[in-house]
Amino acid sequence: MKKMIKELFGRVDTNILNHQCDPYVQSRINHIIRSVKRLGRDKGKRFAETTYPTVWLIHALVINNQPDTVIETGTCTGYTTNAIADALEYNGHGRVYTFELNEVWMKIAQETARVFDLSPYIKFITGDIHKTFSKTLEKIDNIDFVYHDIDPKEDYLWEQKLMENKIPSGGMVIAHDTYPNDLRYEKGIIDFLDYMEEKYFHINLPYERGLLLAIKK
After folding, report:
1. What is the domain count for the chain?
2. Contacts of 4 (CB under 8 A, 6+ apart)
3. 23-42 and 103-115 helices, crossing angle to 10°
4. pLDDT in tens, 13-35
5. In angstroms, rounded to a whole number, what is the distance separating the alpha carbons of residues 206 and 4?
6. At 39, is the pLDDT very low, low, confident or very high (cuts 50, 70, 90)?
7. If pLDDT is split at 50, 70 and 90, which confidence band does 11 have?
8. Neighbours of 17 (CB within 10 A)
9. Are 82 and 118 in contact (CB under 8 A)?
10. What CATH number did the domain enclosing 124 receive?
């Protein structure tokens, strides 16, 4: 387990450093984030946003892991969705399936994807995830990379169990808001973390409200 943790941190450190030194990649991510913010302001709304370090980290890990199929739950306005798609474009292969209930938020994510020509790398699925998730998974054989960021957080465990048989050994799972110090999330997050303990090597990083990085055993 120590070897896996060391390897995981090595991936994070190396890729973040490489990204920060790459002007092209840095410019792309910065422009994606600014585009999402601008589109939100144009609609007269302010949205919760993922911080730059989290977006950078996920982008770096997608490039490092070279996934063919990525699942993201909780698109919101598409910060991470478009960062993931940009990394897939950089890799030259792959697709992210992203799920969101809020149509306004999803349209902002879609508009950003069009601006940056990332739409071919994204499958946008709008609606109640309890009605769309299982049907979508039926069409997917393997899942290489997962990003959980949906509300309510109680759905993390439900989602994970539905995907588990499709995630191979070495597959990566990331989950946001994994510090169980918010009463709205506490029960759901604790149950999810207990489940992941059995099947994954993992680290819960102090990014924002917690960011779980996990590799399947």
Report:
1. 1
2. 201, 215
3. 140
4. 555 555 555 777 777 788 888 88
5. 19
6. confident
7. low
8. 11
9. yes
10. 3.40.50.150
